[in-house]
Amino acid sequence: MRWTEKELNILKRMFxxxxxxxxxxxxxxxxxxxxxKAQRLGLKKDNYYYFKNIVNKLKKKKFRNNDxxxxxxxxxxxxxxxxxxxxxxxxxxxxxxxxxxxxxxxKILEKIKDYFxxxxxxxYDKRKPHYHNESTYSVQSIKDILEVIIPFFEMINLQGTHKxxxxxxxxxxxxxYIQARIV
Length: 183
Fold this sequence. Notes:
Elements: H1 5-15, H2 20-27, H3 31-41, H4 47-60, H5 68-80, E1 81-87, E2 93-102, H6 106-116, E3 120-124, E4 134-139, H7 142-155, H8 162-181
Antiparallel strand pairs: 1-2, 2-4, 3-4
């Protein structure tokens, strides 16, 4: 069956950003037919398509929003946490979510790490004689940031604090970076 001009326009518009199965439903064509026609026309998926799929996967990650410890983490991060990014060699960026405390409170960082099931704990020597050693919980893996940290703070927000604004800016930087790196 020949493709109509209307079908071709729909295919060209949808192929870049939609799953082929969605196009299949819309056009009542087989998946094979859609893929072959797209290939002949030189159509490719847009970066947005890949980014949208990553975001959709993240939204499936569930946290319990009535979890008292999750709410505790939110308040704790509002006071002691950070979301930072920095440039590294080769145009790459490094993203870090972390919490730093005096090492006398390392037990709470261990509980937070156990809750998230990602990240690392590290203790640093005190910077001044009258200080305590410092313990830090951090998550630097982009996969863990995308699959755990961002979904958590999207669901359990930071209650209108400055840290919430910092998180929103950081999340957008992460998303923009991932979208730009998708080939």
